[in-house]
Amino acid sequence: MRILLKILLLVWASSASASERPLSDEDVYTCAAEFKDEDALPGVYVDLEVADSRWDASCFVDVAQLGSTRRLIVDLRDEAAFNQLHIPGALNMPAHLVKRKPFLRGRSVLLVDDGRGHKQTQAVCLALREVGVEALVLQGGLRRWHDQGHELTGSAAALADLDQLDAKTLIESFNFNAWLLVDVTASGKYAQEIRVADDLLRREAVFHRPYDGNGRRFVARLQQWVKTLKPRPGTAAPLTLVLADETGRAYGEIKKALLNTSLAVDVLFVTGGMTALADYRQSHALMWARLDNPPMRRGCNG
Known about the structure:
Elements: H1 2-20, H2 25-30, E1 60-61, E2 72-75, H3 79-84, E3 85-86, E4 91-92, H4 95-98, E5 108-112, H5 119-130, E6 134-138, H6 141-147, E7 153-154, H7 156-160, E8 164-165, H8 167-173, E9 178-183, H9 189-197, E10 206-208, H10 215-226, E11 239-244, H11 252-259, E12 266-270, H12 273-292
Helix pairs in contact: 10-11
């Protein structure tokens, strides 16, 4: 009886100890089939394959520099985005499949994206070059293509959104690109908060330039300010201003004024404004808090 009791105690202790340790890789893969979507924080994971990349100017070409060379245009966006708007004659191919296509070898390929980051597109460009493909990335993507007067096929709504940038892409691509985040709210409190507390964005690349509702006056002041800016040392990426108001609803007059003004830099607008950016930063912080304090072990059957 005592022997049986000892065995039961050992089994209980073993199961209790296992339940108190963090999940290991083995546990995660074993229980993967039971992983639920609500257990994850959507939209805050960075592609680790390109997370440490730096801008490689040799990959990029401006529309005006394409010349007469015939190139196969490969659009790396997902099928839904491609169907909404694309360059006529372009081939739609997801980024993760491009390197596996043998017919690309020995050809001149122009890689196209939406122009809102280029981080993954550059990674594809470098990977293709390793297997003998003469690859280049269209700098500025579809946005630059359209701005230079070239044709795009698709919906007017998708065309109007080319200069919009969501918070997720902003955070993931900010340090890769020469982007300057400009808080255009009256108070500038969001820029101040980021400078004090944020470790996702370069503090020296966050500014406050208040917008008073007069688009022409604001853009004129912006134009003068841009002339004083200098590229960040060590980067070959073109300078881009990323404007953000409180909620993303006050960009109309600014966009109208920009149509009649020649700025020396590109301009993007944060969808949802500083509020959306703050929400994303909070989600990102929550994700890392969960990684620092992993959940207790749970069996595959509960």
